[in-house]
Write a sequence for this structure.
């Protein structure tokens, strides 16, 4: 056997072998990194086509529903006499506001995603060891960051724009224009986040780079939340019909200034009538230019920052034996399940990508409470009506929080899953431990918000109890759905919690969680309706009230228990290391 | 005791393990050898419960890994070839986690003893993410042995270990077997297998190509003087190129004299 490149042996008679002209070196081809990723994805689809088919079908269904809803909504607005004359401008502002919110949502998560993708991805040691310029590896990673943080908002935006186009009978040229505008628009926060990640990794103290970067990301996110809150949208509720009409007119003529979101809105709006707005090439050039500029910065900062991110702390070792912490001991009595909870809590406290989720949660809860407190409603009946809406909203809010807090907990085992798979701990105990780990923050949030909104709105006793019950039940259901479906559709290769729900399983969770919240709202309509008719009427002591309560508990148990049983079954049959 | 009976594992259309029979008795170290893709890791993963067999069964100390997984896994220690240890835990916290998971009494004291034994005590309070590959490998051994398992399964034990640690791990596996436990290891290091194993099982293309003590393997390969590497190359080469000298059914367990080789390595009939 002769290896490629090994010298040829001399012939047995001692003569040198026929020496052909040395092979000409083929012109160096650019390694197609994106092509490699695409091929890997195609292989993954071929390996589990059913899974991707279900995911694509679900996504298609959601997209179709969204487009239909927007189409009907736009037609309704166009036909509405009060705002018919200013419908066009109001809709344009609405589109701008919608994409602005989604751009902020991308900005909300992009820094954490950028740091994970650019600096802690498992393939980086291999890619940076190849004879490739670091700048090209960086470009690939920025593309991955774009997919991880902007793909979902883009997929949400496109059906909205399709609905708008069909309602307004837009020409075919509108659709590629709108798509280009959206893709270019979302590239801007991604480049900004990547640039910030580059600078942080270059400048933050070695050994604490990821923590500093995550803290900056959390501060940025909290700043955005506070900024949005500062707009005080509740002022709209205080307007008289005349003032509201004046507001709409003002809103329609509002000039948000030269911002990328208004450029995108302008490009989309002109596209509806078949025209090409100068804002579209401007937006595309801005996106492209920022990417090129980012590449230039990366050539200077990327590889050095990556090396710094690998540096550890240099503090002296303390070898003294440390006993278990006081809070571990009660959990340790639970055996294997308790051990998993203790381990998960320790990892939560030390992993910035995990604890930062809790800070964002606290910020959201704070904004929610402040918003509720600022609502000034006269009359018990109106307060109860608003309280009823809030009960409905609570379920939806918890469903959204659960996708970040409960759904990823099984996947976060990652490659450490082998400890659980080869250890004497059953699937029931593992899922029980994950449920016990994820539920306290959600239960605290559900009960806390349920109680706080009842107090802040000063609703009737019946509705206050319904609000607290709704918060508690929704927390249990959302935790069960998240842990169960997260175990059924795990992503053990995800590098952080935020990545895990970006999957068909995450979509299924959101669909079922919203279905649960809608069902719970319908069930709790009975006490709400009774309260609205007469706040003094008893609810929970009547047979109808008790049946309602039992149905709400059964509805919760069906969703939580069903998802956990399905997740347990899938977890038992999951095979590690199928390579 | 580890018993593998007629283990078959398919990945879709691909047959990874095609009917493997294997016994590892108490007090015995068995080395599972084979070229890349022979089915060793799949066999190991089926024994540890990471994969479910398509057919056949695996018993650990008499407990079926699929039907009674908790009882089987309670008696099993495992060192994977690429051990992942939670990087944000310290070594002491990881061993405490394992001790609780496995219900080890006096787990902290035993963890300290293992940390001392592997010279990890000075860094026991440091995060595992700061450890070298060799330190992680030693910690994985400590985690596997913490509960003194009746059956120890080790996938590529020497990867990343310095000579002193490698020697320590060899002695440790031998000592574990000498205390009446079972040790099954896979390795590509022939010297390790030769020095440590009471019996060697050679797998090729998902089947057991040969098994037995070194003398039996030499006899089966027809090369009385060869070392294990030469025997291994000869066995796997023959299995690749065509039927081995003792008959076409050898890959199914036929012995050198034409009789069936029993799962324990001894020949049956003649």
């Amino acid at each position: 056997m002769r290896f490629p490149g090994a010298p040829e042996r001399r012939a047995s008679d001692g003569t040198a072998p026929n020496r052909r002209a040395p092979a000409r070196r083929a012109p160096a081809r650019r390694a197609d990194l994106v092509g490699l990723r695409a091929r890997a994805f195609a292989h993954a689809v071929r390996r589990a086509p059913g899974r991707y088919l279900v995911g694509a079908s679900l996504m298609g269904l959601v997209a179709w529903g969204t487009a239909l809803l927007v189409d009907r909504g736009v037609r309704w607005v166009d036909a509405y006499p009060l705002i018919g004359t200013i419908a066009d401008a109001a809709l344009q502002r609405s589109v701008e506001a919608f994409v602005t919110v989604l751009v902020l949502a991308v900005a909300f998560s992009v820094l954490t995603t950028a740091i994970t993708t650019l600096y802690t991805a498992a393939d980086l040691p291999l890619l940076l060891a190849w004879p490739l310029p670091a700048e090209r590896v960086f470009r690939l990673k920025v593309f991955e960051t774009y997919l991880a943080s902007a793909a979902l908002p883009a997929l949400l935006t496109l059906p909205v724009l399709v609905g708008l186009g069909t309602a307004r009978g837009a020409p075919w040229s509108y659709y590629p224009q709108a798509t280009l505008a959206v893709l270019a628009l979302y590239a801007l926060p991604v480049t900004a986040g990547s640039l910030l990640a580059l600078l942080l990794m270059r400048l933050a103290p070695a050994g604490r780079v990821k923590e500093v970067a995550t803290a900056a990301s959390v501060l940025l996110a909290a700043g955005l939340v506070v900024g949005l809150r500062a707009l005080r949208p509740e002022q709209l509720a205080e307007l008289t019909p005349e003032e509201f009409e004046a507001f709409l007119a003002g809103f329609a003529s509002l000039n948000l200034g030269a911002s990328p979101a208004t450029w995108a809105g302008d490009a989309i709006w002109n596209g509806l009538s078949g025209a090409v707005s100068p804002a579209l090439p401007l937006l595309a050039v801005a996106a492209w230019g920022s990417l090129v500029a980012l590449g230039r910065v990366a050539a200077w900062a990327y590889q050095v920052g990556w090396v710094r991110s690998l540096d550890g702390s240099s503090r002296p070792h303390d070898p003294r034996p440390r006993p278990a912490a006081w809070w571990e001991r009660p959990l340790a009595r639970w055996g294997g399940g308790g051990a998993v909870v203790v381990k998960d809590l320790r990892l939560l406290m030390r992993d910035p990508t995990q604890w930062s989720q809790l800070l964002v949660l606290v910020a959201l809860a704070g904004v929610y409470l402040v918003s509720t407190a600022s609502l000034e409603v006269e009359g018990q009946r109106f307060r109860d009506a608003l309280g009823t809406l809030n009960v409905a909203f609570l379920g939806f809010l918890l469903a959204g929080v659960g996708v970040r807090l409960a759904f990823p907990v099984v996947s976060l085992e990652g490659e450490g899953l082998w400890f659980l798979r080869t250890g004497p701990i059953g699937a029931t105990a593992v899922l029980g431990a994950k449920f016990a780990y994820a539920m306290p923050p959600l239960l605290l949030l559900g009960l806390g918000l349920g109680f706080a909104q009842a107090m802040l709105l000063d609703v009737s006793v019946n509705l206050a109890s319904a609000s607290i019950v709704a918060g508690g039940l929704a927390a249990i259901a959302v935790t069960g759905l998240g842990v169960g479906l997260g175990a059924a559709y795990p992503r053990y290769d995800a590098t952080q919690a935020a990545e895990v729900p970006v999957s068909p399983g995450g979509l299924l969770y959101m669909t079922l969680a919203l279905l649960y919240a809608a069902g719970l709202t319908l069930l709790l309509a009975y006490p709400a309706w009774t309260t609205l008719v007469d706040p003094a009427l008893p609810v929970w002591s009547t047979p109808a009230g008790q049946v309602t309560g039992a149905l709400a508990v059964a509805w919760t148990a069906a969703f939580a228990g069903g998802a956990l049983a399905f997740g347990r079954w899938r977890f038992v049959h999951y095979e590690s290391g199928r390579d | 005791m580890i018993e593998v009976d007629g283990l078959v594992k398919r990945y879709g259309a691909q047959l990874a393990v095609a009917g493997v029979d294997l016994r590892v008795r108490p007090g015995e170290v068995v080395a599972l050898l084979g070229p890349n893709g022979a089915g060793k890791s799949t066999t190991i993963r089926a024994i540890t419960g990471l994969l479910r067999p398509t057919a056949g069964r695996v018993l650990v100390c008499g407990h079926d890994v699929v039907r009674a997984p908790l009882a089987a896994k309670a008696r099993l220690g495992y060192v994977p070839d690429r051990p992942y240890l939670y990087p944000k835990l310290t070594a002491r916290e990881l061993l405490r986690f394992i001790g609780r998971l496995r219900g080890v009494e006096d787990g902290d004291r035993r963890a300290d003893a293992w940390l001392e034994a592997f010279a990890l005590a000075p860094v026991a309070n440091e995060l595992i993410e700061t450890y070298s590959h060799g330190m992680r490998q030693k910690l994985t051994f400590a985690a596997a042995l913490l509960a003194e398992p009746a059956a120890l399964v080790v996938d590529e034990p020497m990867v990343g270990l310095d000579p002193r640690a490698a020697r320590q791990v060899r002695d440790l596996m031998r000592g574990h077997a000498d205390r009446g436990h079972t040790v099954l290891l896979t390795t590509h290091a022939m010297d390790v297998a030769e020095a440590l194993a009471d019996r060697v099982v050679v797998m090729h293309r998902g089947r057991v190509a040969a098994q037995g003590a070194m003398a039996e393997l030499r006899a089966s390969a027809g090369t009385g003087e060869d070392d294990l590497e030469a025997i291994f190359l000869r066995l796997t080469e023959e299995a690749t190129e065509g039927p081995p000298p003792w008959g076409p059914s050898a890959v199914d367990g036929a012995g050198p004299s034409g009789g069936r080789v029993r799962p324990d390595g001894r020949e049956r009939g003649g």
